[in-house]
TrEMBL record:
Provenance organism: Phialocephala subalpina
Keyword Lyase applies: yes
GO molecular function, a single term: isomerase activity
Name by which UniProt lists this protein: Related to enoyl-CoA hydratase
InterPro entries associated with the record: ClpP/crotonase-like_dom_sf, Enoyl-CoA_hydra/iso
Taxonomic lineage: Eukaryota, Fungi, Dikarya, Ascomycota, Pezizomycotina
Intracellular or extracellular location(s): Peroxisome
Amino acid sequence: MSSQATKPTFTTTPLPQVADVAISFPTPSILLITLNRPKDLNCINNLGHHQLDALYRWYDNEPSLLCAILTGNGRAFCAGADLKEWNQANQENKARIQPPSGFGGLSRRSGKKPVICAVNGICFGGGCEMIINADIVVADQGAQFGLPEVKIGVVALAGALTRLTRTVGKQRAMEMALTGRTLSADEAREWGIVNRVVQKGTCVEEAIKMAGLIAANSPDSVIVSREGIKMGWEGVGAEEGTRLVMENWYSRMDGGENMKEGVRSFVEKRKPRWVSSKL
């Protein structure tokens, strides 16, 4: 399902269809993805993982889009996996295979462009795994975070365990994963999982503002800067990561139109007029 506040013009293949998701465009350069199964606390089923993966890949390839936001409808951001589907799959001995990008197409996503999570409420299990791998997280006051998998005999295998350790440190990651306890929005911010806690009901509005700040910058610079930070987070050494960014990314943007325009606009004391990234 899709709707739009504006009518952006896309140059790539048509917008993928995603069941139980509302798609809108607060501005022509921002993609807003809203999980829309409020009665099921926006749990994501197996088809949803693959459809969301296709949507993020489309987003990365669509030059007009510069930042994406993920949120939920109702009192939950996402409470995790569809356990009814999981139970039925167990009874029928059917495999449940996620795409390489993981839970909701996001928990293990590398991607090219940034994703902001606007956490409006309950964020448990796979929902929490998604936000741990997001680029920026804005949460409503009252939002709740947790990895309760141990309480139902499963494990957070969608990428959160190793990533959480890098974000919050071993001891806090152990506490969160082994107790399965719930963190408040303020505690999640204190631990470094959340960037900003805002008044209840305003996380999407705040995320759109932040996405606008990102979209106002050079799309080439955003892509390359994100890649450098991501390399460090994934464990690449400082010097090796710098070398890889310079050789594989900066060399492709050096001398490009956006770099020339940025320098020229500074000298001419005007706002830059960016073109779509070709990276």
